[in-house]
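sorry to bug you again but im stuck and you know this stuff better than me. theres a chain ive been looking at and ive put its sequence and its fold in token form underneath. id like you to explain what the token line says about the fold, in plain words if possible. anything you notice is useful, everything is just below.
___
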Amino acid sequence: MPLVLAYNFSPARLAAVRVLCARLKIRLRAVEKNEFGCTVGSLCGQSAPQGEDTQEDDFSDEMIVMAGFSGQMLNAFLHSFYTYHLAPVSLKAVLTEVNAQFTGLRLHQELCAEREAIRQGMQANARRGDG
């Protein structure tokens, strides 16, 4: 069964996403702040919990990790945010062999860096007139 890891969702937003997931037969797991140092793979049940202490490091923006999704299920899940009038989650990833080894903190850093690189690329294209 597909699984969504949800980081930093407010209780109300988590409840709304939980309903969406139930309709699509997707498990939802809210990741607690004290688990941000655990590897994404371990939180998805791929290995025993492992990671590092997260007392000092933290992030506050929402992030989701989707594991065990087919392409069709992924599209349905992402489209359902629009269908049910939920704001999209800007930081999202599909579980891979590589990012399964990342902690939530590391994945967050990677996704933020990727988002910034895309933003800068779009700005460069706009300045050249390509955008």
The helical segments are 11-24, 40-43, 71-83, 104-128. Strands lie at 3-7, 27-31, 63-67, 91-94. The CA atoms of residues 63 and 90 lie 7 Å apart. The chain has a mean pLDDT of 90.
